[in-house]
């Protein structure tokens, strides 16, 4: 694969930056907003809402749904890329991610309840072409799990720095 050679020769080119930003929303209410995903302008905007468990209307995907979607998309695409490398033909692939959170933490109802998801589950429904060696499919899923950036980030954690600019007009 050409990328292996390229990144072997120029490792600095292997470092990328992904991004998303919120835009608007302050003119409506605290329970809705818009995300522009992408490290470049794709002309895409996603509306989000806030879950009813924390006072929102739950009428649009909430940030937790979007986090689950990011993990599902990353694991799905990683499986498909690795399948291509291993020459495995996939006839079916679906990845479902769920996440459990006790909102008493975020609402500060109980001080001992942590803020954040307490558990996430990934379910992969995969079917390779007839005649594919089951050990190869296991190798595929193990390699994809190892290589999935979002899965490994969530499992190991990552430092997150927050900076705030306050306009004092």
Helix/strand-derived category reads alpha+beta
- Radius of gyration, in angstroms, nearest whole number: 20 Å
The quaternary structure here is single chain
Q: Per DSSP, what share of the residues sits in E-state strands of 2 or more residues? A: 15-25%
Give the overall form: globular
Low-confidence stretches: none
Give the biggest sheet. Answer: 3 strands, antiparallel
Please state the average pLDDT score.
94
How many H/I helical runs? 4
Distance between the termini: 54 Å
Q: How many strand elements? A: 5
In helices, the fraction of residues equals 25-40%
Short description:
Helices cover 31% and strands 22% of the residues.
What report would you give on this structure?
31% of the residues lie in helices and 22% in strands. It has helices at residues 2-9, 63-85, 134-147, 149-156, and strands spanning 20-23, 32-37, 46-49, 90-101, 117-128. The strands form two sheets. The chain has a three-stranded antiparallel β-sheet, with no helix packed on it. Helix 2 packs across helix 3. The protein starts with a helix and ends in a 13-residue tail after the last helix.
Distinctive features:
globular, two-stranded antiparallel ribbon, three-stranded antiparallel beta sheet, single chain, 5 strands, 169 residues, alpha+beta, 4 helices
Blueprint (SSEs and pairs):
Layout: H1 2-9, E1 20-23, E2 32-37, E3 46-49, H2 63-85, E4 90-101, E5 117-128, H3 134-147, H4 149-156
Antiparallel strand pairs: 1-2, 2-3, 4-5
Helix pairs in contact: 2-3
């Amino acid at each position: 694969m050409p990328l292996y050679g390229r990144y072997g020769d120029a490792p600095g080119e292997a470092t990328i930056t992904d991004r998303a930003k919120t835009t608007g929303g302050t003119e409506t209410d605290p329970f809705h907003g818009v995300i522009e995903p992408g490290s470049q302008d794709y002309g895409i905007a996603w509306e989000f809402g806030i879950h009813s468990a924390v006072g929102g209307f739950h009428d649009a995907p909430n940030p937790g749904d979007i986090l689950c979607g990011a993990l599902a998309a990353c694991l799905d695409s990683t499986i498909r890329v690795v399948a291509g490398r291993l020459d495995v033909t996939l006839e079916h692939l679906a990845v479902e991610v769920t996440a459990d959170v006790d909102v008493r933490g975020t609402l500060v109802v109980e001080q001992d309840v942590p803020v954040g998801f307490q558990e996430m589950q990934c379910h992969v429904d995969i079917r390779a072409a007839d005649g594919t060696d089951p050990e190869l499919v296991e190798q595929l899923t193990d390699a994809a799990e190892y290589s999935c950036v979002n899965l490994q980030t969530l499992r190991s954690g990552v430092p997150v720095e927050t900076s705030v600019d306050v306009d004092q007009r």
